[in-house]
Amino acid sequence: MVYVGIPKGQGNQEEEVLKTIQDGDADELTIKRFTESREKPGALWHIYAAKDTEKIREFLKKVAEEQGQENPVDHDPIHDQSWYLDRSLRKRLHQEYGVQGWAIVQFLGDVVFIPAGAPHQARTRDTVHNLYSCIKVAEDFVSPEHVKHCFWLTQEFRYLSHTHTNHEDKLQVKNVIYHAVKDAVGILRANESSLSRP
């Protein structure tokens, strides 16, 4: 989080931000960072374990159906990013499916690491919950430990409609694997003579 702007002259905004943080199920230490240390919060994240993805997907489809919405085959309630799990939906997800995530408030200067395949959602100033205006920098990367997960995500994206924003292979996992292997072979060949010595 590289910038958090707090508007001047809006007296009760701190109370609204505190309520949003509390309703977001943030822990007491996080709340104290805002109330006592006077740090600047920019975004409220909810991050879930990758292993719970299918349960979350099933839950979102169930809720959509209850609300009379369609669940087209070439769309995905997680990748569509059309849902925000508010407090009541998060509670229901936990009660009905045993899925509980982590609430993280990202303050100015904080970094949030999201593991590969972990469903997540954030609330910032431009959405319903009003935290302060903020600018954050995001960087995607593929670590060797998570190549399998990233490849699986790429496969999921293929089943989305051709007009879906996530349809294309943004991660380029096959290219990452190819270049990693090519670099490893190049290093081994460059050091071949020293490796063959007893």
Automatic annotation (TrEMBL):
GO cellular component terms given for this protein: chromatin; cytoplasm; histone deacetylase complex
Cofactor binding note of this UniProt entry: Binds 1 Fe(2+) ion per subunit.
Co-factor requirement: Fe(2+)
One Gene Ontology term from the biological process aspect of the record: methylation
EC number: 1.14.11.65
Domain JmjC per the UniProt entry, residue ranges: 1-158
Localisation: Cytoplasm; Nucleus
Reactions mediated catalytically: N(6),N(6)-dimethyl-L-lysyl(9)-[histone H3] + 2 2-oxoglutarate + 2 O2 = L-lysyl(9)-[histone H3] + 2 formaldehyde + 2 succinate + 2 CO2
Family matches, as SMART domains: JmjC
Example of a GO MF term: transcription coregulator activity
Keyword vocabulary terms for this entry: Cytoplasm, Iron, Metal-binding, Methyltransferase, Nucleus, Transferase
EC primary class: oxidoreductase
Domain statement: The JmjC domain and the C6-type zinc-finger are required for the demethylation activity.
Known function: Histone demethylase that specifically demethylates 'Lys-9' of histone H3, thereby playing a central role in histone code.
Family indicated by similarity: Belongs to the JHDM2 histone demethylase family.
Name the UniProt record assigns to this protein: Lysine-specific demethylase
Source organism (scientific name): Nyctibius grandis
Source organism phylogeny: Eukaryota, Metazoa, Chordata, Craniata, Vertebrata
The gene coding this protein: Kdm3a
